[in-house]
Amino acid sequence: MITDTPNPLEISTDYPLESTRAHPPMLTPSYVFTRKRAPHRPLRVIPHTLTELSGPIYGHDSVQPLDNDLTKQGEGEPIGERIFVHGQVMDEDGRAIPNTLIEIWQANAAGRYIHALDSHPAPLDPNFYGAGRTVTADDGTYTFTTIKPGPYPIMGLNNYWRPAHIHLSLFGPSFLTRLVTQLYFEGDPLIQHDMIYSTAPESSREAMIAKFDMSATKSEWALAYRFDIVLRGQKNTHIEA
Amino acid sequence: MVTNKPKTITPSQTVGPFYAYCLSPVNYKFRMLASNSLVTKDVEGKHITLRGTVLDGDGLPVPDALIEIWQPDGLGRFSGHHPLLKTAEFKGFGRAMCDALGLFSFETVKPGGAPMRDGVIQAPHVAVSIFGKGLNRHLYTRVYFDDEEANKSDPVLNSIPEDLRSKLIAKEIEPDCYEISIRLQGEGESVFFDV
């Protein structure tokens, strides 16, 4: 029987809670779906233990090289504006986060998801699936090639259109760094009307807007947007060698 | 030494209703990264089913909820962290989507107790994240087990008011099958953590 336990020194730092004030509150009545789903009782603070400080492991080999090119998932080229989305994943102290999983999903150029329950009467694209994965490089950088998604209406609400966006899911180094967010595109007039974008505090919401990046465009091929992502970071990490 | 002023973290947004074909593509042609089965050939521990329901403030099912779990093996060892589980087939991470009735189910092993920072062993538990439409941030809770003596001395469980502790404890409803109710809001509301 194995009885050894990990060295407690490995988990002697934790993550400041104040940083999470950048997140939206659970209840934002203007985003109507929070009304019956946001807990009434305040969240309870508990110490960070090995459970929280260790992090989800998945099969790293389940991410393959072409998974970050959403224009190569069909037999032909998908319809729409081809773009690169690239950036760097770092923690709140600016340290690069390497080897972390990013999953993305999005609507096609017409604003339609391949999801079976999407009833928006816009066409599916037989050459566009709309999901991708990648793992950040040693310097925390990542790149996706995709099609710029179209805006779409939320069905059942009166003339409500969501701005074009890409959903992102990141793991980071621990259970506490888990993040699901959305990327919006600079200059989209629908952003300021969006009830989901606006759930985030004014001080942090602009961090969700990807910037047009002329320097990363590729001649006669694709435009580019830059989107850096900041995850929570551990306190006292300056002690690390 | 890091002296830069901290950056604002990227805020969370709802996972929305249409994530399945990426995050949990059971019914789509996309490779699964994690599923609702955590059991592997190499894992130490007793095989169990952990299942439950996710209900909203009206007691109605949340069919679009995504549940992620993270746990050690039956000896309290986290994959990727414990020196002997750096390259194990067992990952300890699972994902399951709720069905139309808000039901989810995992095939896993009963976790062993993992240590606090001071070395005190916690009662066996599973970390649980809940994502869904209308959840601006994912919710975090833990699931303990009703047949564990160690619950009585668990530091986290005992930091919760006594009348709420039972909401964190799954009941063994048949041999090796444990059930938990996750109520997002209102009567019977679950206990969610700010971590």
Helix fraction of chain B, binned, reads under 10%
| Main sheet attributes: strand count, strand direction, barrel closure of chain B | 8 strands, mixed
Number of strands of chain B: 9
Secondary structure class of chain B reads mainly beta
Radius of gyration of chain A: 20 Å
Poorly predicted runs of chain B: none
Supply the helix-strand structural class of chain A: mainly beta
Q: Compute the gyration radius of chain B: what is it? A: 17 Å
Oligomer: heterodimer
Distance between the termini of chain A: 34 Å
- As a percent range, the share of helical residues of chain A equals under 10%
The number of helices of chain B is 2
Low-confidence stretches of chain A: 1-13, 237-241
Mean pLDDT of chain A: 91
Distance between the termini of chain B: 25 Å
Could you name the key traits of this structure?
heterodimer, A: 241 residues, mainly beta, 9-stranded mixed sheet, two-stranded antiparallel sheet, 3% helix, globular, disordered N terminus, disordered C terminus, B: 195 residues, 8-stranded mixed sheet, 2 helices, 4% helix
